[in-house]
Amino acid sequence: MKKYAYLLLLTAYCLTACQKDFLNKGPLDRFTDELIWKDSSLVNLYIANIYSGIISEYDRGGSDLMMSYTDEGESNRPYLDGQLVNFAQYNSATGVFSDNWTSNYASIRKCNTLLEQLQSAPFSAALQQRMRGEAYFLRAFFYMDIYAYFGAFPIVDKSLGLNDELAIPRATNKECVNFILKDLEAAAALLPATYTDKAQTGRATKGACYAMKCRLLLNEQDYQGAAAAAKQVMDLNQYKLFPDFKAMFQPANDNNVEVIFDKQFGSLQSKQKHDLNDYEYPRNFTGFASGVNDPTQNIVDAFQMKDGKSWNESALYNPDRPYENRDPRLYSSVLYDGMMFRGEILDLQKGSAANPAERGTATGYYLKKFLDTTYDLKGISNPNLNNCIIMRLGEVYLNYAECQLKLGNAEEARTYVNLIRARAGMPVIPAGEMTWEKYEQERTVELAFEGQRWFDVRRWKKGPELLGRPVYGMVITVANGKRAYTRSKIEDRVFVAPKMYMFPIPLDVMNKYPAGKELKQNPEWD
């Protein structure tokens, strides 16, 4: 019984017997395990269930998005984990991101089971190849997510049984990275570059493997390796920058040419819906305390004026009309006072319908980037089915540019940064003027709110400077019919380096290890 407890809670792995519990959920409950592994349609459903375990930004709807753990955002729910992190008031017992440990290990178990069962499945060689490729990719994806939040992890590459050692120690960082890379490379060798059958859209591809490899190696500061992986993505010639940044995240453009990998909602790969629209639309549209994650003035300030200068350096900036003449991406990413949105001019002065005194926007702004502007607001239980982009070519270009800058090839970096700026309608950076500061600014606004800011800041070792600084909002007042905009500090934040660059492994996971085989906690979190 003691070992059984470890098995359940150590890594959320289940015994072979537990597989039946999983398979008893949903439409698979009408079939035995023996039948399932002989039927390709049922195995496809099993794989779809693994895809559904991906924790995307949209899955965080109603709670803190990653933006609210960074200087991009502020939650209007003071009891959520983001506030604990921003004030450094958390520890192992708090369980911040504990779902990313337990849920990912549950999904890894499914991947291991799939790989084992496919060895004897009576499917065609082509189908076996695709399914094994998906299993390797997804296992790498889930391990990569654990590694991003907690660092090194216990490597489990098979379905564990009662007679197996369950108190598996954490591997080294190098061993973990190599394990993920091995899976991604195996997947890339098995998966197609694209699917001719549109019904398979959303499944992992060769490009998704290369792109995730690029992200992993960049965060490891292996700039040669990450640049090479980025080139592998580009050389596939499968992706292009979507011409309209504003429309890229709208459901009408799901699966557009820029998307390398996403989480599909409402499809075979997921069969899920999310709640992002319900919880991030301004309150005057929903009628309840929505707008949970609000952009800060810090991120608004990062969007340049349309002349390519910062707001406090450009002659185009007018403090009475602070949102005019800005980088067009601001208008696609943030809802601000006076903006026309769904037929209404937003009034964000305190006490208005859009910004009531209680649980209005915490910053004077609302998030816009991911909102489905066609979403039917008449019923809060309507399905949210727009896909969540996890990796796109724009990020690969920026990853490649960062590598080239670090490798001393500023002009090569400038080429790819300028592709991003040209798409946005911003002035390109002239020859000889590419700097790290310009790269960092460009990445900040292009990828704003997409969930990578925390990891970028950690890689740049700028936690105290960027995550530990005060965050600001905008206070809107009206006097004699004239609107005034005043920057206001929301809060001082705390970032303790290097301790906070990794989250502590949740205490309930640590406690499952027996005496003498304790799981090693991250530095300074003991």
Automatic annotation (TrEMBL):
- From which organism does this entry originate? Chitinophaga varians
Q: What is the protein name for this chain? A: RagB/SusD family nutrient uptake outer membrane protein
- What is its subcellular localisation? Cell outer membrane
Q: Which GO terms describe its cellular component?
A: cell outer membrane
What are the SusD-like N-terminal domain coordinates in residue numbering?
76-217
Q: Which family does it belong to?
A: Belongs to the SusD family.
Report the superkingdom from the record. Bacteria
Q: Write down the Pfam families for this protein, in alphabetical order.
A: SusD-like_3, SusD_RagB
Q: Which Gene3D superfamilies match?
A: 1.25.40.390
**Which UniProt keywords are given for this protein, alphabetically ordered?**
Cell outer membrane, Membrane, Signal
Per the database record, which ranges form the RagB/SusD domain?
258-525
